[in-house]
UniProtKB/TrEMBL annotation:
Residues 188-228 form the Non-structural maintenance of chromosomes element 1 RING C4HC3-type domain. This is Non-structural maintenance of chromosomes element 1 homolog. Gene3D superfamilies: 3.90.1150.220, Winged helix-like DNA-binding domain superfamily/Winged helix DNA-binding domain, Zinc/RING finger domain, C3HC4 (zinc finger). Component of the Smc5-Smc6 complex. RING-type zinc finger-containing E3 ubiquitin ligase that assembles with melanoma antigen protein (MAGE) to catalyze the direct transfer of ubiquitin from E2 ubiquitin-conjugating enzyme to a specific substrate. Involved in maintenance of genome integrity, DNA damage response and DNA repair. Its EC number is 2.3.2.27. Belongs to the NSE1 family. Its main location: nucleus. GO terms for cellular component: chromosome, telomeric region; nucleus; Smc5-Smc6 complex.
Length: 237
């Protein structure tokens, strides 16, 4: 790495500040921000150098146990950038923002999502857990509010009353989930990152993200599992 490349500039600092205030940023937004930061601070800009720009920031974040991580959304496969705190596990970081019974509800929701076939948990199932919490039972109304906050804070995302883990949550918590849910958490057969929303092969049990399924079977009229070669039984998204 040349001394030039490792230099942290005001453009890098601005980029980091904006990302910090958002927590997560979609790839196209991050590319726009990269350009804007370089223009404002008159720093050399190359449109295909965002990842280099980010790794310069990361080399300066290392002593602070922080890192900008890039990951893909499970729904559409788009890149996202997330600022991750490496010094504490995510659950302890959440502990400063939520009460004990809210955290317990989150953990139980996570259990449901990770143990499900497709990576979703219904609001009915989640709300049924609310009055079984060990820390302090929650009324349904209260639990609904808490779920709303988890969605606003980008830990969960919701579609038609079905909840799954937000992209930010997956990127931040991947290690936590893989080590705490060893018997249930699976990686995608294609991209090898954690797969929550996914399809499963009926025959051999491998999992694939929906965007990876699309890519894998794009040109196939008779889709077969890339692992065991049996017919792929799920509908191609």
């Amino acid at each position: 790495e040349t001394a030039m490349a490792a230099q942290m500039t005001d453009a890098h600092r601005r980029f980091l500040q904006v990302l910090m205030s958002h927590g997560i940023m979609e790839g196209s937004e991050a590319r726009k921000l990269h350009r804007r930061c370089c223009e404002i601070h008159k720093v050399y800009y190359a449109h295909d150098k965002l990842d280099d720009f980010v790794s310069t920031i990361n080399s300066h974040l290392q002593p602070l146990f922080m890192q900008i991580r890039k990951g893909l959304s499970e729904g559409d496969g788009r890149a996202h950038y997330v600022l991750v705190n490496l010094a504490e596990t995510e659950i302890t970081k959440m502990a400063s923002d939520y009460t004990e019974n809210e955290l317990e509800l989150f953990r139980k929701t996570m259990d449901l999502i990770i143990s499900s076939e497709n990576g979703f948990a219904s609001s009915t199932d989640i709300l049924n857990l609310a009055d079984q919490l060990k820390t302090k039972k929650m009324k349904k109304k209260e639990a609904e509010q808490v779920l709303k906050v988890f969605v606003e804070d980008k830990w969960l995302s919701e579609r038609n009353g079905e909840y799954t883990l937000h992209t930010r949550c997956i990127i931040e918590m991947e290690q936590y989930i893989l080590s705490n849910y060893q018997d249930m958490a699976r990686k995608c057969y294609i991209c090898h990152s954690l797969a929550i929303q996914s399809q499963v092969c009926d025959s051999c049990g491998i999992r694939m993200h929906l965007p990876c399924v699309r890519k894998c079977f794009r040109a196939q009229t008779d889709p077969r599992c890339p692992h065991c070669n049996d017919c792929w039984s799920c509908d191609i998204p």
